Amino acid sequence: MAHKIKLLLAEDEAALGQILKESLETRDFEVILCENGDKAFDKYKSEAPEILVLDVMMPKKDGFTLAKEIRAIDDTIPIIFLTAKSQTADVVEGFSIGGNDYLKKPFSIEELIVRVHNLIDRTKTQKTTEIITIGEFTFDLAKQQLKFKDDESIQLTHRESHLLFHLIKTKTKF
């Protein structure tokens, strides 16, 4: 059986929250549903989810405030905001406080699932491939640096790092 992605969903609209929870669970997600930001923060601490899907407008603690509190202690967990607020200023605020994605209501469950998988894949890649050894070379993907033995590191461009990473990743397929 494949690993189920543990997702914390904070949504104050009970009907929407239940529909999302059931839809995600039928697609092999483990969903922790919370109806406000306070409960979501407690569940985040006790359940260790892999990704957060937060409604922006919730009682007790809104999604932006919740994200700020979580970002203060965890700067790597992926966060997707769900909201009816679609003004540019709202979107900018969501990204500037550490959100990784922003989905405007109404949205399709398929779009949410694709965004969740993309963020999870990106996070796993960043965690598992920070430093790669290739013969006598060391490649640090996070810092985009290549080093030969004990020589000085060479700073690579984003494109060079991306290309090198994909070449390394596919080398075993040939």
From TrEMBL:
<feature type="DNA-binding region" description="OmpR/PhoB-type">
    <location>
        <begin position="129"/>
        <end position="174"/>
    </location>
</feature>
<feature type="domain" description="Response regulatory">
    <location>
        <begin position="6"/>
        <end position="120"/>
    </location>
</feature>
<dbReference type="GO" id="GO:0032993">
    <property type="term" value="C:protein-DNA complex"/>
</dbReference>
<dbReference type="InterPro" id="IPR011006">
    <property type="entry name" value="CheY-like_superfamily"/>
</dbReference>
<dbReference type="InterPro" id="IPR001867">
    <property type="entry name" value="OmpR/PhoB-type_DNA-bd"/>
</dbReference>
<dbReference type="GO" id="GO:0005829">
    <property type="term" value="C:cytosol"/>
</dbReference>
<keyword id="KW-0902">Two-component regulatory system</keyword>
<feature type="modified residue" description="4-aspartylphosphate">
    <location>
        <position position="55"/>
    </location>
</feature>
<dbReference type="GO" id="GO:0000156">
    <property type="term" value="F:phosphorelay response regulator activity"/>
</dbReference>
<dbReference type="InterPro" id="IPR001789">
    <property type="entry name" value="Sig_transdc_resp-reg_receiver"/>
</dbReference>
<dbReference type="Pfam" id="PF00072">
    <property type="entry name" value="Response_reg"/>
</dbReference>
<keyword id="KW-0238">DNA-binding</keyword>
<dbReference type="GO" id="GO:0006355">
    <property type="term" value="P:regulation of DNA-templated transcription"/>
</dbReference>
<protein>
    <submittedName>
        <fullName>Two-component system response regulator</fullName>
    </submittedName>
</protein>
<dbReference type="GO" id="GO:0000976">
    <property type="term" value="F:transcription cis-regulatory region binding"/>
</dbReference>
<feature type="domain" description="OmpR/PhoB-type">
    <location>
        <begin position="129"/>
        <end position="174"/>
    </location>
</feature>
<keyword id="KW-0597">Phosphoprotein</keyword>
<dbReference type="InterPro" id="IPR039420">
    <property type="entry name" value="WalR-like"/>
</dbReference>
